[in-house]
From TrEMBL:
This is TMM60 protein. Pfam families: Tmemb_185A. Keywords: Membrane, Transmembrane, Transmembrane helix. The chain crosses the membrane at residues 36-58, 78-100, 106-129. Coiled coil: none annotated. It comes from the Eukaryota.
Length: 134
């Protein structure tokens, strides 16, 4: 399951464009769609990324794989998995709030996003200050 860089960029651009078009139509009140329907391109893109990530992580389970060779790489993939799940939780909570399915405060809706941004800042700081340079 290998994609070239051009294919990944095109796929990202296509799903982002489709999401933004649907969002603009919803915000201009041209389309009376459900908020969960508006976020479908985001969820399709995230599902593709999750499947690719899980397939790469599952490759460690095959016979003949030496677990000592890829432990830092596995930690990074585990962080990517957690980040994707936090993004998914934020999108679901935001859609539920916008669709009035829940009466939770907006501050609670943003907790997964804040956790994701905090983790990204920690990873950035670790990569800048603690990783050895060649």
């Amino acid at each position: 399951m290998r994609m070239s860089l051009a294919q990944r960029v095109l796929l990202t651009w296509l799903f982002t464009l489709l999401f933004l078009i649907m969002l603009v139509l919803k915000l201009d009140e041209k389309a009376p769609w459900n908020w969960f329907l508006i976020f479908i391109p985001v969820w399709i893109f995230d599902t593709i990324l999750l499947v690719m990530l899980i397939v790469k992580m599952a490759g460690r389970c095959k016979s003949g794989f030496d677990p000592r060779n890829g432990s830092p790489n596995m930690k990074k993939k585990l962080w990517y998995l957690v980040a994707m799940l936090l993004k998914l939780a934020f999108c679901l909570a935001l859609c539920a709030k916008l669709q009035h399915f829940t009466t939770m405060r907006l501050a609670y809706v943003f907790i997964p996003l804040w956790a994701l941004l905090g983790g990204a800042m920690l990873e950035l700081g670790y990569n800048i200050f603690y990783l050895p340079r060649d």
